[in-house]
Batch of 4 targets.
Target 1
Amino acid sequence: MSETLENLLQENRQFPPPDALAASANVTAAAYDEAAADRLGFWEAQARRLSWATPWESVLDWSNPPFAKWFVGGKLNVAYNCLDRHVEAGRGSKVAIHWEGEPGDTRTITYADLHRSVCQAANALTDLGVTAGDRVAIYLPMIPEAAVAMLACARIGATHSVVFGGFSADALSGRIQDASAKVVITADGGYRRGKPSGLKPIVDEAVAQCPTIQHVLVVRRTGQDVAWGDKDLWWHETVEQASPEHEAQPFDSEHPLFILYTSGTTAKPKGILHTTGGYLTQVSYTHHAVFDLKPDTDVFWCTADIGWVTGHSYIVYGPLSNGATQIMYEGTPDTPHKGRFWEIVEKYRATIVYTAPTLIRTMMKWGEDIPAKFDLSSLRLLGSVGEPINPEAWMWYRKHIGRDTCPIVDTWWQTETGGIMISPLPGVTATKPGSAMTPLPGISADVVDDQGESVPNGGGGYLVLREPWPSMLRTIWGDDQRFVDTYWSRFDGMYFAGDGAKRDADGHLWLLGRVDDVMLVSGHNISTTEVESALVSHPSVAEAAVVGATDPTTGQAIVAFTIPRGHVDSEGDAGEALIAELRNHVAKTLGPIAKPRQIMLVPELPKTRSGKIMRRLLRDVAENRSLGDVTTLQDSTVMDLIASGMKTGK
Ligand code: ATP
Ligand code: MG
């Protein structure tokens, strides 16, 4: 990874923060200095943003690395911090969640409402025998009860394990078994793409394999018929009948808050364990700092699903701990029409949108005339997370969603890091399209070479974290050794994230995706991200995925799968001409070494359920192999679509 193409990173557009935002920003440049002078003192100051029942005795215990303890001896209740303290401060009537169901039904939930529901759910779970330390699986659509269920667990000290509602019965039962969960909270179904889809039948199939499950709590969402067994209980007959009085008990700062399984794109899913005090400190601080959240005026919208870490940290714990008003949407962005997201922004006057590059590229494909139909003037800040954002997608987002005025925060982090680690600060940083810029105050990220030495500016290598951080994973559930082996063994004393990165001439960070996705072409390391970004910078391209295929002469050769933008003619000769033009465009942008051997025009790309490109399957296609495991694919028909709709150019 140390050898990099010299002509990469030619991006030199820069966007300083808007004056008004800079003048009233929650966090200024002083935060970097404070954290540099006294990192632990800095995090202590952030922990004081929360309400603690018992103060901590020491900030960090790192005597047994990599097993960290933060805010040692401190006690707090997460749900108290997200709800009770806002209600006690007289903000109970403030809207916590504007919920929008896919069919168009809506609910407006205040902090007082949410507090009441969470107390009821806490009492109901206690009645079912759930006590502190027990595990509860949550398998729900994007309905408010998902947040209620998580907060109710936190309130009574039960450890939740949310499983994304699109996962199969096998995936669900594997996760329930790994955590020995006692209760599952689910729904009859949820709305996806305009129709109800059943969840309860999947739970029934999973629970049959899970002897630890004692109760299945079922929210009625769609009203569809469900089979009913002796473990099953309706939410509305239990939770909604329970007492709304519940006093939250404080738990130790290191009490397990949740387990979240990584998506398993690479191997057997890992149960990432997060605990209480450090996690809440960092997600609350980063939500306040990175999104410049003003609880009295902002309407925040994170479009992620609650089944991913982004939903945990930036729908539930970050925003609610900060007393934010937010939007929660149940369905898909194209139901009933491709402008649904922007219609929601207009309707609720959203001020901050936090979404993923995959969605931005999809919107690019659909065309800018769609967002242009809606009033997006309420927006003041945009965020991105999940994959590297290609500079042209970044520019499109800025121009067509952000009216050329909203700052964009490209936030790098992982399930394992719990909260945002690398990101611009919107009132401070002059951003560059495609760069996550700098580690946040109190975070020590670095880029190192094979030997673990920091690379100089202009160099590339492996992204590592040199110091522990408050919301770091504490272990892999039930497998300390795998935790050590996976993250702490590649480089001595450093956390290895598995991602490649570059540091540009100014010292700013550019994330390059997983190191497994780096190609070796004629002795040069070339990242798939860079070639994809070069392709997306062509006006005819909406989205691209690049893989390295074995090649007799060059070791690996670059093969690109490219989705043309909506208006582009890619049939017959026009398609061939486009392919030739794109190959030359990449060669011109990145240098002849990066010229793809082959470009295929395709209608779709294979993606994981969290919307990330699955390059592994495309490598199979590029190398003419039969496809590997496709179970984590979002849409299993897409590979057929690619095979049938493929136009190949050599
Ligand atoms: P799995 O670990 O199960 O294979 P995953 O890594 O995709 O799945 P997440 O923890 O949700 O699961 O995603 C974290 C990864 O997403 C990062 O390691 C990185 O590769 C990528 N990522 C997230 N945000 C960014 C970003 N802003 N820029 C570049 N890459 C990002
Ligand atoms: Mg990962």
Target 2
Amino acid sequence: MTQASVPAQAGVPASESGPMVRAEQVHKSFGSIEVLKGIDLEVRAGEVCCLLGPSGSGKSTFLRCINHLEKINAGRIWVDGDLIGYRERGGKLHEMREKEVAAQRQAIGMVFQRFNLFPHKTALENVTEAPLLVRREKRAEVRDRAVALLERVGLGDKLGNYPSQLSGGQQQRVAIARALAMQPKLMLFDEPTSALDPELVGEVLDVMKDLARDGMTMIVVTHEIGFAREVGDSLVFMDGGVVVEQGNPREVIANPQHDRTKAFLAKVL
Ligand code: ADP
Ligand code: MG
């Protein structure tokens, strides 16, 4: 990878001068098994990057590395110009302290295949939990923001419902609102619609489309080719821990260059 995309200059937000996400030669192993074998990737601010690939290709692991849920063995990841997990001092990299890690994680929202809501909290409480506990924001402000977010995802009439009283699609929309409540600059989605009944997929994708239109930077692991084609600014196809092919989603889907991409698309289209 070249050094063409330079890190942010001092005082200039990276979102104006460089990519929102930049991964350079990211390697990750579990024991002796290398799962990520040198991932290079860039996502500019406001763009939607759709990450596709067969099961086991390392998509979830890559997302988890961006969000500190896994520690990489080699390479670098920057989010908004900020090196994930490390500080540079005196020309050397030092591992971040827990507090700094927490601050970086707060700027990154993540939505999982399984919604992982707190079962004994209402929709509203699920959304207010982190801002109140982690950031100790004012209760009234947090509540107003949470109500507005739940209205935005179409759940203004479900504030008091518990997860068990919501459909899968509604629960996933609460999970999205919950991630947004921390006002992230980047949203990671890991197969957000894979666990849903087919008739509930559309309502979650609509919320994600709305977010994309609003300018949120997103990395979306998905098998929803229609979404990638319609909403994606870039498509990255991974297989076996490497990026096999990437480009404009409409071009890659219509005219895949690699056999592995062709075989995969033939299965999901
Ligand atoms: P994908 O999301 O593309 O299906 P994953 O990132 O979940 O792929 O997994 C990639 C590979 O890494 C798989 O072979 C999986 O078994 C392995 N893997 C993922 N997490 C762990 C872990 N915590 N320990 C050991 N192996 C793991
Ligand atoms: Mg996965």
Target 3
Amino acid sequence: MKETEPIKVMTEGHNMKSYAKACENFDWRDMEKAFSWYETGKVNAAYEAIDRHVDSGKGDKTALLYSDPKREERYSFREMKEQSDRFGNVLKKLGIQKGDRVFIFMPRTPELYFSFLGILKVGAIAGPLFEAFMEAAIRDRLEDSEAVALVTTPQLLSRVPHKELPALKHIILVGEGELDEGFYQLEEGFCSFRKEMAEASTELEMEWVDREDGMLIHYTSGSTGKPKGVFHVHNAMLQHYQTGKWVLDLKEDDIYWCTADPGWVTGTSYGIFAPWLNGVTNVIRGGRFSPEDWYGTLEKNGVTVWYSAPTAFRMLMGAGADVVKQFDLSKLRHLLSVGEPLNPEVVRWGLETYGKRIHDNWWMTETGGILISNYPAMEVKPGSMGKPFPGVKAAIIDDQGNELPPMRMGNLAIRTPWPSMMRKIWKNEAKYSEYFRIPGWYISGDSAYRDEDGYFWFQGRIDDVINTSGERVGPFEVESKLVEHPAIAEAGVIGKPDPVRGEIIKAFISLRKGHEPSDELKEQIRVFVKEGLAAHAAPREIEFKDKLPKTRSGKIMRRVLKAWELDLPTGDLSTMED
Ligand code: WTA
């Protein structure tokens, strides 16, 4: 990316007055004082996010401003406490204990948030699943985590192969049709959310846990193998809280909207914890993306701080400035973006259109919280991810672990540890240790460089992980699904650059004998992946090949596919079979 003129400081009054000052004498232990456990010694992130505000007299303040095309609801911190207490009691009645995995597979509605908080309150580990997942994706995750309970809707139930999941004992049905007799008469282990909640007490005996006890698992993709269960602990709240203050710049009166779904890490760290740990009103919008809907959400709720993603900003840019003019966005104070590279032209467009800078920041499912960012009180360099969060050391290192000087490209690495760092990959020690193969460092898998002023610039992934519309997709998962199709002999999947989505998924496919390439077959294959795995994992482009490039040990060489696609040199082919 080209370097361009930095955009200077535009407004005053930020929580972080000066980046340099914030870095001086920074100590995470100072942040602990914000939490009640600093004095009580009793830890639970859900308590700190919700109940603490009730106990300190802010119970009537609005915590959740929910809307979708059918519902519009508002819940105070007190109501959030009551609802999550109720749900905790529902779980207790089912015998759910500390450390049990309880998964949530449902669209964004208030019940999702009550459930999530209730799970934490009983000391169980929450596993939110993106609602677009299909059966194979759901099976992999529930099987690996050995989830004992699942909160889902009657509509999504057909994607849950519950009879094949021996660990799964309870299914809590929520939403339209949940009271239908059928579920409960036929099967043991089903219960109705509404019915159980109505009977449960609004006073829960909180499970106090240790800071290092499990809180959350997010499954994410690597370039090989099945999705990995990234395991986070209650201690992560330190980072959620402080990045909420300094990066999101959250203040008492803010109306905050994070557009991410809790099935992805941004939707929990910054869609649940950061705003509520800071006692801020959180906007949740259900339903689908459209420019009118999103601008309408900003206007109607008077959103002041808005956290979204490059693909969304690019789509809004595509929709044009005329749409923007129909809405009153004057309350907007602070804009942020994460998940994929944010093009400098989008930042400049944002400045022209909204009159505000979009602050790019960088982190990963594994890091649990923001590690590099552009801060409100700092010059923004369009195209750069910004500077390390105070107390965090980021560096560019080579494969031996040597730190590289400015302007040299290498592995983006972070000095271990930091409060929200993942504590394990669920049941996969080997995968976990790959991240820490160089002593003292977490290796992100991204390549980047640092400029003379200390700003970091993203260059790409080192592995084959695809980032499409900000969603991380593992090529192996898609390839595995593809070869289940009866016409497909072999498949190789790559990310192909795309102006709006960042990357799209492209599949190279060789067919079994007796099958001929055709557009109908392409469409059939797309639907096959869409219905088997997830819509966002389906290849937008398919190319048939007689043969795919493979190593002598039979591994598809995605690097060669990518070089073909981009018209680049294929590099060293010595390991390729003839
Ligand atoms: C990419 C999302 C460029 C990166 C929070 C990283 C980014 C992966 C940025 C993590 C950014 C994230 N600029 N690329 N500002 N932020 N990425 O786990 O490749 O879904 O490794 O976490 O997204 O994606 P994940």
Target 4
Amino acid sequence: MSEAITSVLEENRSFEPPAGHQGYIPSLAAYEALKARFSDDFDGTWGDLAGQHLLWREPFTRVLNREKAPFFHWFEGGMLNVSENCLDRHVAAGLGKRTAIVWEGEAGQVRRISYTELLADVCRAANAMRELGIKAGDRVVIYMPMIPEAAVAMLACSRIGAIHSVVFGAFSSLALRDRIEDAGARLVITADGGSRRGAVYALKPNVDEALSEGCHTVRHVLLVRHGGNEVPTVPGRDIDWHQALNVQPAECEPLAVESEHPLFILYTSGSTGKPKGILHTTAGYLLWSRLTMCWSFDFNPAEDLFWCTADIGWITGHTYSVYGPLCCGGTTLMYEGVPTWPDAGRIWKICEDHAVSIFYTAPTAIRALIKAGDEWPAKYDLSSLRVLGTVGEPINPEAWMWYYRVIGKEKLPIVDTWWQTETGGHMIAPLPFATPTKPGSATLPLPGIDAAVVDEFGHTVIGDGGLLVLRQPWPSMLRGIWGDEKRYVDTYWRKFGSRYYFAGDGARIDEDGYFWIMGRVDDVLNVSGHRLGTMEIESALVSHHQVAEAAVVGRPDELKGEGICAFVVLKGEFTEGLAAALRAHVVSQIGAIARPDDIRFANSLPKTRSGKIMRRLLRDIAAGREITDDISTLEDQTVIEQLQQRV
Ligand code: 6R9
């Protein structure tokens, strides 16, 4: 068991929520009451919330249809539009002058975009996309830096019923091509380049490279000029974003779509080689993005400045940089650049300069900030902060305590939110002004969410570790894997006979009913809060001409949570510089986030008699731990020694 997990198991500190503020859900009693409403009338309660929180063009006639489970249908009969919910209704309510997006660039430039302006931009972009032939149901890939145009592009898709698929800007051209092809995208929206560590990196050439083979569905590329870097363009195919928008009217009637109309596809890693396109639909996703802003963050759109540091290439950026805050009519901050640039005080400087009140980041960022030293936050006035959130991986109690003490001055609630790309929004999280917190625990399921820890047979376990499941559907649940119904059923529902959603995480529930997430139980790594499949990296490695076989495992990493260790068997002789070449190869196949930290070579890989790679043994070797597996049956004992050598 890793040290982080052991210390989580021994953690027994508890902190009361801050007093003196009436939160959205103000007390544990109110939480219990809301939970009781769900137990008494599950469908009715969801229906009431959907009626109150969303703007409907046609009211829904049925809350939840379970007939085709695990393909659930929410809010049947209802018609609505996401961009209308995020923009028009706030403008209509007289909030047009309110800032929707505050954007800061790495060089310190600031843009403030009001709801009126954002609506006009989204309409122009929607009109421009229509003129390029994009219709409801068409897929649009967005490959962009963290700039407001990325949010405009997402909202513009939703305005005309197109399905967006955002691909993280650090993914390679090959990873981009796979996603464009799998989604069958008609349009790619990209930028010339973005900023990173004081320099401009190019994005557009990756799109050109991706489109140079296959991708026959793509008709056009919309190009945002942002980085100022020279990029080649293909006449007829590539269209300048600003030129295209400028000639369009600032009005575009939002297309009302059915509740279950697809809103977006987001690719994420699973335990097999091919990334899966997680499908989210309109009404349920939007409802939960708004409700969790209220419940987990106590978001007050009239006063708060909300900053979620996640890139829009991840689900956290979708739900909490764009849809959640905007659906509430509040202000969201976007920062484009490295959080420690030009120095480790940048994050805290942004918090001070813009008076950020709710701050949401990942444990890996917190650990990097701890390492930089307490003098950095000490330089800035952080008194505007009132809620601190974390997401993406288990937070070790030491990092939690630092966040609480040094940033929160022991006065602010720490909201540790457990959820996944598949869940659309938070599932387990404290209510900041109601739930007592324990360092390292995501605390309790949100109202309406039926989370449990079960054994292999689906029986509830209390006290011991088990598998984390969700026993009831929820509105923002994934509706499938794009183009692969079978994989959806097999991955999430097969294990417990279509009754429970299987999350792929291990967890434990303590005597107070608190959830302690213990990490993935499948072959998925969590590197700096980014999900990566071991098989994905293995297939990248074996696609190199010198590699015969490869196995990839995670190993504990102080900063990144998990590091990547690759064990490689070569086809021929070892050649000088091979480890570096293999690293570069993986980066070109997937992206920089998948670069192995450690590559080890051997004549063969340790396997069981049935031929399975002994992954637990490899994990022990990678972590430098004592070997607990029985290795007496291994044909070649020297392999272990070879694998223990670092190159
Ligand atoms: C939102 C997001 C999902 C996986 C998930 C789990 C891990 C996320 C966590 C957490 C412990 C938390 N995870 N939040 N583990 N505590 N608060 O991160 O989505 O990229 O799909 O990753 O991340 O292992 O299964 P995604």
